[in-house]
Amino acid sequence: NIERNIAVMIEEKELDHKNTAAPRVGIIMGSDSDLPVMKSAAEILRAYGVPHEVRIVSAHRTPEMMFSYASSAHEQGIQVIIAGAGGAAHLPGMVAALTPLPVIGVPVRSSSLDGIDSLLSIVQMPRGVPVATVAINNATNAGLLAVRILGVADSNLLSRMSQYQEDQKEIVLRKGEKLEA
Ligand code: RP5
């Protein structure tokens, strides 16, 4: 797992040389096989200039690492955790049990059950331990939700999010115009 973590960190560094400030968002996932999906969350944060880190932290294979990461994240300056996992996807829920920070869960599509297993494992949390679950494989929305959460206390992020929404509206309206023409 150390090798995998290093590989992910190197990849992240190669993707973004500017992401050197103390991370505000922690993107974690159960396996490096989740990375092709989870990359989209990092891309959103990169676009908004939000410092973040990307790590492999497995609830089942590295439970001690999961415990220490989740229980100390808020002391390290992390403000939101995005956790992706597939199959018996216990990572987001366990992390939410260990941190006071908001946790966004990304159900990663598994090979056998199409991601329904991941979705249900993540979304069906007991009362008192919330995980904000996005759609299967939708790490983009996890990144956008993290930006919105940070935007509550960051007017720059908030106004950029409003602009993004305006841009989306514009794109849809233009597509509609083309259909009529
Ligand atoms: C989960 O098991 C991971 O989040 C991943 O989605 C799934 C399969 O992991 P690998 O066997 O591909 O490492 O813990």
Automatic annotation (TrEMBL):
Part of the full-length chain shown: 448 to 628 of 638
Keywords tagged on the record: ATP-binding, Decarboxylase, Lyase, Nucleotide-binding, Purine biosynthesis
GO biological process: 'de novo' IMP biosynthetic process
Record protein name field: phosphoribosylaminoimidazole carboxylase
Keyword Nucleotide-binding among record annotations: yes
Family named by the database record: In the C-terminal section; belongs to the AIR carboxylase family. Class I subfamily.
Gene Ontology cellular component list: chloroplast
Record-level Gene Ontology MF annotations: ATP binding; metal ion binding; phosphoribosylaminoimidazole carboxylase activity
